Amino acid sequence: MIKYKNTVFNCTMELAIELIGGRYKALILWYLLDRTLRFSEIKRLIPQATQKMLTQQLRSLEEDGLIIRKVYPEVPPKVEYSLSESGKNLKPVLDAMCQFGKTYVEEHSIYSPSLLQS
Amino acid sequence: MIKYKNTVFNCTMELAIELIGGRYKALILWYLLDRTLRFSEIKRLIPQATQKMLTQQLRSLEEDGLIIRKVYPEVPPKVEYSLSESGKNLKPVLDAMCQFGKTYVEEHSIYSPSLLQS
DNA sequence: GTAGTAAGTATCTAAATGGGTACTATATTA
DNA sequence: TAATATAGTACCCATTTAGATACTTACTAC
């Protein structure tokens, strides 16, 4: 039993789902794996998410200590997001997910020109 | 670009999130990793999920070919769920998630008597 | 004859999520 | 003078998701 933010989790798996299970969380973390990104860059990488959604997910990730938000006091604003040490621990999870997705596409003969190229 | 079920995914990560990102999906898959379970057993393992939610998630996992649903024509009903070959490919993902959760709890000094015991 | 069982479905309501638009700041550019 | 840029927030409305409860089947036990 794990208590975190007024919620009880029965196992570490439940906690992990809570931490990275949000709509665009895993995707954001995935893009942050290899580099720091500005808000606008993340928005360009995940165009299907509205600005509100992105902000929400980023705030939640920051609150859970998975990413670091660095604000530059400039106009127009500049905000950079990067993985925290805790966030970097997610690399095995994200790598495994990506690999699973690839295998799934191959085994289910799903149309994917980009996979044929690479 | 990947097309699956009338939806376009920009990368395999997005597809992976779609497949296992549902409310209780990763948890169900996690419990199915080492054994076949009846519906009532899953319900007992995940009491916070309503029957409707569980049925929904199980149906979705079945549709995506991650689990196998075996119905025994009996009364009262008996239905067994197990991982498909595709579902078994998720083991590295689920193991990594569990490990991440453990590390997260340790590093954030979250109250967890069960972790102290094990 | 009634209750219990397993795995659901059906229906209604409540809550969370998501989309759209407008608004903010200040410096630079056209 | 007006537009552009960035990273948001505020507000309202629509959709989706989730919860609660009742109902089903056919057999068995009390």
Task: Give a brief outline of the structure.
Chain A has 118 residues and is of the alpha+beta class. Helix content of chain A is 53%, strand content 17%.
Task: Walk me through this protein's architecture.
Chains A, B: It holds the Pfam family HxlR. Chains A, B: It comes from Heliobacterium mobile. The structure is a homodimer of 118-residue chains. The first copy, chain A, is of the alpha+beta class and 118 residues long. Chain A has a single domain (23-117), classed as Orthogonal Bundle (Arc Repressor Mutant, subunit A), CATH 1.10.10.10. Chain A is 53% helix and 17% strand. Chain A is built from seven helices and five strands; from the N terminus they run ββααβααββααα. Chain A has a three-stranded antiparallel beta sheet. Chain A has a two-stranded antiparallel ribbon with strand order 1-2. The longest helix of chain A has 17 residues, at 91-107. The mean pLDDT of chain A is 91. Chain A binds chain B through residues 1-4, 11-17, 19-21, 23, 26-27, 30, 65, 85-86, 89-90, 92-105, 107-108, 110-115, and chain B through 1-4, 11-17, 19-21, 23, 26-27, 30, 65, 85-86, 89-90, 92-105, 107-108, 110-115. The first copy, chain A, binds a DNA duplex (30 and 30 nucleotides) through residues 23, 38-40, 43, 49-53, 55-56, 71, 74-79.
